[in-house]
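TASK: fixed-backbone design
INPUT:
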């Protein structure tokens, strides 16, 4: 189980861009925030829900190009074209 988690984390790390904000350091900070929120008094969530929240926080910006939606639309970026100018 530990080996699988380690492989997954390295895979996630490798898919984060090296841009100023949407990077693995941001993912780590977001993940820590989610863990702290889940541990707050009065917060109840199933084990599966907690796992999903933590994994989602870790991977939430994978492959993010570091560009705004508006910039992508105005420059006809491949992502804007793919998603029909919608976020």
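OUTPUT:
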């Amino acid at each position: 189980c530990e080996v699988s988690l380690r492989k997954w984390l390295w895979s996630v790390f490798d898919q984060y861009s090296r841009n100023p904000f949407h990077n693995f350091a941001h993912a780590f900070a977001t993940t820590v925030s989610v863990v702290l929120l889940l541990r707050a008094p009065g917060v109840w969530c199933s084990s599966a829900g907690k796992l999903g929240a933590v994994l989602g926080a870790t991977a939430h910006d994978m492959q993010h190009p570091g560009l705004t939606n508006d910039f992508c639309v105005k420059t006809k970026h491949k992502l804007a074209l793919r998603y029909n100018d919608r976020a």
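COMMENT: The mean pLDDT is 93.
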